[in-house]
Amino acid sequence: YKTDSASFRGIVGRSYSVNIKTLDGKQYKSKPEPILPPVPIDSISSRFVPGQIRTASFEVSVKVSDPSVSKNYYRWKWRNYDTIEICRISRVKSDAGSFVYLSPCCQKCWQITTCYGCLALFSDELTNGKSFTQKIANVPYDNYYDYYMQIDQYSISKENYNYWNLVQGQISNSGGIFDNTPAFIEGNVY
């Protein structure tokens, strides 16, 4: 769920919950979740990882100066903006055969991709008050066009971190003998 940012803005330090009432009368509520003070990103860096065509990538990392006043938990989300040159593909059939026409874009066009299944998390339990660098994404290197990335950094609660850490553990299981034991993941909606 997302709020209309023009009419509602959360305030740091307050806790919020979601109330849901379905058309058939069922009601759901989330446990209150605090909005924690944001911690700025100091810098963003990328490192080229060579490979064959479509396997080379850029490893993107953030550097953050963690405040020493409390335990902090972080989550990152990102989306990328790839330049596209062709905005429309037309297929035309005629007696002479089938033809494909590629229409170039008349202005700068972007394919925007959000990685919903990507989880980048960090806990400062072992590095409280120190700077750290966290890898947040591997971006495929598959063309020579302009590329932009938007990175959102969130300060999250310990409960939120524990939830996403369990989800990340389940996502990374591959079926091998050294995988984490599947866990019951309980959200904050009841």
Short structural description:
This protein has one helix spanning 158-171, and strands at 15-16, 19-21, 27-29, 33-34, 41-49, 57-65, 73-94, 97-114, 120-123, 131-140, 147-156. It is mainly beta and 190 residues long.
SSE arrangement:
Elements: E1 15-16, E2 19-21, E3 27-29, E4 33-34, E5 41-49, E6 57-65, E7 73-94, E8 97-114, E9 120-123, E10 131-140, E11 147-156, H1 158-171
Antiparallel strand pairs: 1-4, 2-3, 5-6, 6-10, 7-8, 7-9, 7-11
What attributes does this structure have?
190 residues, mainly beta, 1 helix, 11 strands, 7% helix, extended
Overview of this protein structure:
By secondary structure, the chain is mainly beta. Helix content is 7%, strand content 48%. The chain has one helix and eleven strands, in the order E-E-E-E-E-E-E-E-E-E-E-H. It has one helix at residues 158-171, and strands at 15-16, 19-21, 27-29, 33-34, 41-49, 57-65, 73-94, 97-114, 120-123, 131-140, 147-156. The model has no long low-confidence stretch (mean pLDDT 86).
